[in-house]
Amino acid sequence: MSSYPYPLLNPPPFSWTRGENVSEPKVHQWIEPIDAHHQEEWGAYDAVILGVPLSRSSISASSASENPEAFRRAWKSFTTYNLDEELDLSELRVVDLGDVREHVTDISICHQNIRDAMKAIQSNHPNSLPIMIGGDHSITAQLIKGYKDIHPKERVGILQLDTHFDLRDLTDNGPSNGTPIRNLLENQVVRGEDVYNIGLHGFFNARSLKTYADEAGVNYMTMKEARQKGMEQVIGEALSKLEAKVDKIYFTVDMDVLDISAGPGAPAATPGGMYVHELLEAVQIAGASQKVCAMDIVCLDPTKDVAQATVKTGVHVMLSFLTGFMQRKEQ
Amino acid sequence: MSSYPYPLLNPPPFSWTRGENVSEPKVHQWIEPIDAHHQEEWGAYDAVILGVPLSRSSISASSASENPEAFRRAWKSFTTYNLDEELDLSELRVVDLGDVREHVTDISICHQNIRDAMKAIQSNHPNSLPIMIGGDHSITAQLIKGYKDIHPKERVGILQLDTHFDLRDLTDNGPSNGTPIRNLLENQVVRGEDVYNIGLHGFFNARSLKTYADEAGVNYMTMKEARQKGMEQVIGEALSKLEAKVDKIYFTVDMDVLDISAGPGAPAATPGGMYVHELLEAVQIAGASQKVCAMDIVCLDPTKDVAQATVKTGVHVMLSFLTGFMQRKEQ
Amino acid sequence: MSSYPYPLLNPPPFSWTRGENVSEPKVHQWIEPIDAHHQEEWGAYDAVILGVPLSRSSISASSASENPEAFRRAWKSFTTYNLDEELDLSELRVVDLGDVREHVTDISICHQNIRDAMKAIQSNHPNSLPIMIGGDHSITAQLIKGYKDIHPKERVGILQLDTHFDLRDLTDNGPSNGTPIRNLLENQVVRGEDVYNIGLHGFFNARSLKTYADEAGVNYMTMKEARQKGMEQVIGEALSKLEAKVDKIYFTVDMDVLDISAGPGAPAATPGGMYVHELLEAVQIAGASQKVCAMDIVCLDPTKDVAQATVKTGVHVMLSFLTGFMQRKEQ
Amino acid sequence: MSSYPYPLLNPPPFSWTRGENVSEPKVHQWIEPIDAHHQEEWGAYDAVILGVPLSRSSISASSASENPEAFRRAWKSFTTYNLDEELDLSELRVVDLGDVREHVTDISICHQNIRDAMKAIQSNHPNSLPIMIGGDHSITAQLIKGYKDIHPKERVGILQLDTHFDLRDLTDNGPSNGTPIRNLLENQVVRGEDVYNIGLHGFFNARSLKTYADEAGVNYMTMKEARQKGMEQVIGEALSKLEAKVDKIYFTVDMDVLDISAGPGAPAATPGGMYVHELLEAVQIAGASQKVCAMDIVCLDPTKDVAQATVKTGVHVMLSFLTGFMQRKEQ
Amino acid sequence: MSSYPYPLLNPPPFSWTRGENVSEPKVHQWIEPIDAHHQEEWGAYDAVILGVPLSRSSISASSASENPEAFRRAWKSFTTYNLDEELDLSELRVVDLGDVREHVTDISICHQNIRDAMKAIQSNHPNSLPIMIGGDHSITAQLIKGYKDIHPKERVGILQLDTHFDLRDLTDNGPSNGTPIRNLLENQVVRGEDVYNIGLHGFFNARSLKTYADEAGVNYMTMKEARQKGMEQVIGEALSKLEAKVDKIYFTVDMDVLDISAGPGAPAATPGGMYVHELLEAVQIAGASQKVCAMDIVCLDPTKDVAQATVKTGVHVMLSFLTGFMQRKEQ
Amino acid sequence: MSSYPYPLLNPPPFSWTRGENVSEPKVHQWIEPIDAHHQEEWGAYDAVILGVPLSRSSISASSASENPEAFRRAWKSFTTYNLDEELDLSELRVVDLGDVREHVTDISICHQNIRDAMKAIQSNHPNSLPIMIGGDHSITAQLIKGYKDIHPKERVGILQLDTHFDLRDLTDNGPSNGTPIRNLLENQVVRGEDVYNIGLHGFFNARSLKTYADEAGVNYMTMKEARQKGMEQVIGEALSKLEAKVDKIYFTVDMDVLDISAGPGAPAATPGGMYVHELLEAVQIAGASQKVCAMDIVCLDPTKDVAQATVKTGVHVMLSFLTGFMQRKEQ
Known about the structure:
Six copies of one chain form a homohexamer.
Chain A: E1 9-10, H1 27-30, E2 32-33, E3 47-52, H2 67-74, E4 81-82, E5 87-88, E6 94-100, H3 107-124, E7 129-134, H4 138-150, E8 156-161, H5 170-173, H6 180-186, E9 195-200, H7 207-216, E10 219-222, H8 223-229, H9 231-245, E11 248-254, H10 276-287, E12 292-298, H11 309-330
Parallel strand pairs in A: 2-6, 3-6, 3-7, 7-12, 8-9, 8-11, 9-10, 11-12
Antiparallel strand pairs in A: 4-5
């Protein structure tokens, strides 16, 4: 079945076998490597995947930088066929661009590289949906800035699943993982009223951040309220409101939105958070929105994971999002 | 309280104390060892337990072979009294037959031994309910074949809780843990229409397996749908349909049906799976069906478990099943 | 921002920084140390926290004695602001009294010290709500006895969240963690009809304990029933009934009430238990009851925890309880 | 090969198969269970094994009480044949008496039971070598007292491998695991000059304990010095000196004598301790001394072990000691 | 520095970057992938690496099958430059052939494939040194048989570092990991006198295996004796004796030869085994022998490893062996 | 015994109890907190301890920033009395200054703060021996620069225990943890000939770094050679040579010098490294050198540690160094 030239042998198990012509691929056999020699095809992808292995910008010590590699290893255990929706992701063409190059001791270079990478994606793959695998939440500010660099006239909104506001003051410790939304608001990249954050709860946000959110007009709903209303309705309403006022929606999933029992690999996950089935449902709905133009998955530290539970849930988030994306295209 | 002959001493804690005459037994004090010298009593058991420590037939490296021993250690922390149902399992007589002998390097001998063990059970304990503790899912095919060897005229259906179809092609890699249902269909042991699989979901089954299932007439319901309808109704309906057409129902629980947050010891458990309370509810209902003639619990690898969560859930599955079984007898 | 005298330095990270004048404190910056030099202020606290590091009285080997220290470390990651309720716990004054001194080889001295500590609290802080961090469940009997020593005429009831009855016979092994409720009943400290235990289930209580509970008039509801009715209603009803007949309610949370997937650090947690969001909801309602006079959190062994999930859930239980307490004061 | 009555089946893997007539036994097949019905044979054993599952007397929280069970599970992976010495332990008759019954909340009862158990052993098995599997080090005082109860006229010395003096003041916290040697000295059971402690080092003993040791005439040698001189010579000399003045030598191995890299399951193991090969060498030499009359292995907490390294080393200590014992008999 | 075509990006971190023209490569950048299109170069490699991911032939449940992948991941943290010997392995050309294809349920097919793979190596790379990464020890018998199929007239000896004889009876459980040496002796592939096994010790070999070894003339030395004599001398003597009588020496390293404190990932490692520096010294000397024609590393289960200690030691064994090989060439 | 004002209570177990007047202190009771109100005493300390919680400058993701807190927790299990040397560290006055304040996203600010902290120490505590607890190895460059800022005329040499040269090119990734020695050489802070690095080995340094070391005249010795010569002699010779040419010696211990079996918490520890007893011996000798003016302990990531082995070894390194320091003063 394999095309490996040596009789009786399989290639080394983590070599670049992507893009093989396999009838029923696993995810790693479906996602293609970028091909430098056929740049004319770069625009033809439905989606592009970009690893953003930066977590030295985290307030707490984090190895979320290891997550892109962890994702690539974990998605080998997923097929492309979604049984729930009877839909095969392999009908999409998806390319893996590799990882943004990071500097060891100068975080501002890292952030610039991330912004530039998003610009390059927008230039080279204008019709593709970018999916970014963090890394910590500081990257979201850079990615949206990069997007806006190319599309300065678009009004961009944010749908955020998160335990935290991410509205900390940048003058305290610079553009850390606690600041991305404030970073975008203060730089007039996004308006407060165009941010919808779902899943906040409990004792994990200082009061001043809530005050700031209220003053900035940021929209948010606690996990408790979201659970009572039902995830389908809550996400649907947020998307409807956003679609009515913005041109494009950036979707960001902070894995610490998970309940602590479900997210050992998201060190900031807390008691009272989202359960796995709620998260997957929310993500698929977001993927189906015509205006969602990009997404990221952040703050997942695979070195702290247990039984790969959080990493696999993260990969499923990506695939559920792409499921919504396929459904969007079929509408 | 103990009858150990040495004053002040307790016997070694894992010695064979089963079958002691204890007023309020723990599970290990209730389940009896098989007694070679009183073979005339062999037919009097309500249920027989059989360990099937085979997992070298697993596609992925597995230590599910260690699970029968893990169960026997873990059930010491369970009483026989079910508070929810105000019912005491110790009114049942249950015997532990030990484990099927396995061959190290010839899996076909293992499979034959498993089949023969089920035949022996059907002969020696014709009125007992067999409960098999795997081991991987390949054993289910052998166990049902063994059952049919003794009861060739019975039409046997399957109720399956699983993340996977288990319908892989046997010509690829032989009778592995991905193949048991197909094995039974292709050998005309069970009909496709007599299989009900509940709990499948997500990206864990190739499209061709779904096609095969459809062509074979296998019945299945995704986890998402089952959760929406409610486990009680879903299992009830599946059992009703089966009861209307088959003579006997074999019940098989692949522990990977659990959500990944609840099943660290089931390495194939995935995001979006069944929660513990849903599983226990489903199992008890199945135990209460008059036509359920045997059950197994498979694909639980205790060496990967965390805080014994999955092993204890597995033991509870067995006890909840026996709870249903007692309720069935009381009807 | 810090007042540490040495330029550029922060104090050692776990030194006693509590009671600092910080505008938006973390929990450890809000809870005050007891100040020996201003004993006149001892009565002014809204709540007092007492560590009870005793677990050598546990039937199974336990390191729950390490839990008070684990709590104090873990609560540094919580703010005092509760976003769900838009309420700031820092408006309460809370003092940490430290830990009850324990004897290594004489458990009766430990128990006497615990009882005396509660008496001292009732004398020194008559208007404060005591919150005790165990240790194992044997401490509850001593704490309620100490309370009754000071308030002999009050009729005290118990609201208990637990997988177990805790009604074992004291003549077997003395006042272990399996006996606190029976200890109180047999000593006429509390009446059976004044005990409400919610969350029991499955195969974790011998039949004789249920019989004892019934004969003693202890009220209880299984987890299954509580989940069907809804936690809000169940706890509300139990509190209403208690409030109608007793003067004060002691609230005790055995962390083993959690489902095993959510409570790796509660070694007696079992399959089929309470989920995190259910527990937090129950606790907050209890905190809001005007008659609840004290609470404890027991049987959490941090050395067995995974990803701090159970310890953080335990801390959240304390904070959710205080949230209810603030709401009570605002009524 | 197995005599299990059921064709194709093996008995449950941890049932009491000891004492089977197996030509080349594993350790669990060689060590016999005590047989209540043939008490006339009780005196014929070469050695008796006694589990002493007490660790609630430990200063730090400990689960060393789980160690006897851990040993019995672990020794299944050892044969009786010692390749180094070309000697087969199965030529000895060894019986497992089970475990001393412990009380949950009264440690003085536990200690009395342990003392009584040793008295029973000396009465029932006067010619057998007792090997005690702790438990914490507090048991050593009780075991030697029990021995002396039966042999009041014998002068008993102690050879101790330990990181600590175990000379703490009993008036502080009672007969904890820090006190056994002092307990014996103060009660005139053993003389200071008859104690030889090897392996102490570093920052793990208060100065006053050294002063006490010096004043009491206790002999000791640091690990550093022992390593320089060589374990064979050091142990040989200590035994020679002891043999010259006492009637019997009790040998006690505190597993915390191991270097921390080799003893994860001995929580008090420290940097700079003994390596595995040094420990095994020391133990075998001690076993060969004609005057060594009993031994114990203490302070091994299997719940903290990693990869079973410390438990297996502990079992090997027992077997190496028996190797020396066989060599003694052959002299 | 990187030649990746996309500005600012690095390729996915585990893609096939081997064989890049990097001035100071890490091991994964040095070892080349096999190139199907330039088969004329296949003979030019100094060494070939072959993964043999078979462990379902293990007596105990094992995931040693995962080891080739673990090696390939771990060797990224090693440079090619050996500072101790001031020698750069990158002067050698080494190719990675990938893994032998294994069958899931028919171990005899696996064994045949392994044998055939060695034959293919001998044909396609006649001048290369094969290094096999197991997998369990059963593969050694197949690899040597495959070698002999191509070189039937050569007399092949074995240098073995192992805790065990690996001389179990094949009629018991077939060609398991306990049998490879006996398999070769009984099939007249190797003579008993041409086997030198170093590192056996303790209670891990039944007496009958020693008797068999003696009768077969197998040479062996215990770890204790080897440590006393010094590893350099012991290995040197064994090689000298072998070189004097055989044509070629096959070198096999069972990682369970390590002391249990150093080999958590070698589940059969035992107390009293080899320390890391001793193993590395032994391996380098073996690599330097002119007659050593192949080597394998077996019985390392990376799923049980702690802190990657055993996997990294295994990779170092491979590199130390190649160091010796380079020194051999320079002689 | 405790002076805590509340009867029967102990203070919270990790509060600042240092500097208490305890007759036989544990390390945390001996080391004093800095007292802002008695600045006149600041110069009277024998040694000052400074935490340097920076590891975002690490090439690989690291949580070595958590190490100062881990040290402070772990040293509670150490006494001040060194039994080997019969010497009590509590005769020294040692102060804990707390931790250098770090910036989240600007590493150059972190490095400047570290340098300034060392300058402040040299000014405020001119007669004290500074001991720095890292953090990663990048801090060493800053600390020595800070020292030189105050003592510009002193010639400072370095004694380094390390697996690596730490001579990477700063133009690649800035002043990361791979560069400190080169940083100092290129900035003419230290001369190559004044650096002695002991413990390098294996495949962990690129050839170009060795070339650079040779050209810069850096002195180094492999672990293998050091073990053969004996640690005492090797360290003694290096110190003698340094003492002959420099004014002061800075001693830096990279914990990755440990063998991988002994250093799970030092992620860069490798096979073939130093054993614990060798490290402790080396450190004590260094502490005794009259010219050693400061020391640091780096690259210990407590979140990866197992059984606290590496953290406790790190604390012992600090205490062994202070032991040497006391011996120096007594000379």
